[in-house]
Write a structure and sequence with these properties.
alpha+beta; 2 domains; binds calcium ion
Amino acid sequence: MTVPLSIICLPALALAGPSGTSARWSGGVAHAVRPELHSAVFVQPTKDTSTYSNIGASGNTRPYVWMSTFPDEGRQSNLVAMFNTGAAGVPTGPDAARIRIIRMVFTACTYPAGPRAIYDPSPDPWQNTLWAGGDIIVYDVWGGSTPVGSEYVPAEPRYVSLGPAEDGNKPVELFGVKYNNGWSAASWVETGTGTPAYTDGVYNAEPIDFDDNGVERSVLFSPGESAVEFVFGLYVGDDGQTYDTYYPTGNFLPDPVDGFDPNVFALGKSYFIPDGTPGHSVGGQGQDPISLGDEIPPAHRLRFDVRVDDPAIQRYLRSGLEAGWISLMASQLAYADIGLNGSYSYWLTKEGSATLPPVFDLDPCTLEFDYLTLPPGDFNGDGLVDRGDFGPALMALTDPAGFERAFGLLDAAALTDMDSDGDTDLADVTAIARLLAGL
Ligand SMILES: [Ca+2]
Ligand SMILES: [Ca+2]
Ligand SMILES: [Ca+2]
Ligand SMILES: [Ca+2]
C-alpha cells in the first residue's frame, strides 16, 4: 500500500518553536513530528457592553460597566466581552472543529474611579448571596436616586453566613454568553443607539454555564428568588411626606425559588504585574496582589484561567470559534441597591481604556489562548499522529459513545471526517482503516 506523505513546515508558535514541523492531510497518513501549537492574543475585546437593563443601548459605549446584584434582580448587571477570533486569523467553520484549546486566560480591570467591591477569590454558596439583614434604603420613586428613608429587614430565613472573613465579599465569576432576540456577537451593534441590553422582557445577552451533565443553563437567577417582600405603594419618608415608590415591607415571601451554585468558567484572581508592563500599568507601575476582604483598588486587574479541560466549556469555546467569535461574561454578585448604593466596582471597557489620560496605560478586558489544530488521524488530541492514536481511532469507529466519554474534549464527528467534507462516509472509514494499518 502506498501512503502519500505530505509534511510541510509551518511557522509554529510557542511550544513548537522555530524548528517545529507539522503535518497536513493530503489523502494519506500524515505523521506530524511536533504538535501544531498556535496562540491568539487580544489586548481588548472587539466589542464590549453591559447587561444592566435600565440603560438601554448606552451600555455599549460607556467607559465602564458595573457588576452588581439586588434582591430579586439576579445578575442584572454584567460585563460582556466579545472577541472576533475569525478576524484574528483563528480558523473558523469546519476547520475550527479540529481545534483543541489547551490554555485560555481572560483579564478584566477595574476603572480608575468609582465605587469599590470587596475581593473574594473563591466561590460562595448561593445562600450567602441572599439578604443578610440590615437597612434597605427607600428612594423617592422606583428607579429614583433620592433617599427618603430606610427600613430594617432581618436576614432572610435561607441566608447562610460564612463568618466575618467571607461575608460581604463575592468572587468575580466568568461565564459563557447566550444571545437572545436573534442577536449574536457578530450582529451586535455597538453604538449608543445600537443593540440595547434588554428588549421585550429579555436580556439580549445572558450569562450561561453548563450543568453537571453538560447541559447549557442560564445563570441569571442562580442566586435564587429573594424572600424579601417589596411592594409598590405609598410610603411615608423620614421627612413625613408620602412617596409613591417601591419599598420592603419587612416581611418574607412564603415559598421563594431556590438558587444553585453555577459551574463557573473561571474565577477572577488578583495577581502580580511587574512595573512597566505595557497595557497593564499606571504611571509605569504594575500591581501587587490583594487578599480576601481587601477593597479591589482602582485600575486593578483580575486574571481568569478558563477551565478549558471541562468538556462542556471546551465545546462552547469550539463552537464559538466555528462562528468566529468567543464571548465571555464577567459577573460579580456584589450588592447594589436600586439607587446604586453598595459596594461594587466599575470595570473598564474599551471605550474607557481609549479615553483615559495617558498616565493610565490600561488595556480593558484581554484574552489570550493557545490551541492545537489536530491533524487528520490524530484521535487522542495531542496534535500528533502516531501509535498512540491506534486505540482511540478504533474506538471512534466502533464505539463513538465510549470515545465521547474517554475523550470529552474532542469532537468525534470532526475527527472521523478525515477529508473534512462535513460527513463521515465510506471514504473516511477507508482512510481510518488505512491509518490503523500504517500505525
Ligand atoms: Ca463597548
Ligand atoms: Ca465571600
Ligand atoms: Ca495523537
Ligand atoms: Ca468526510
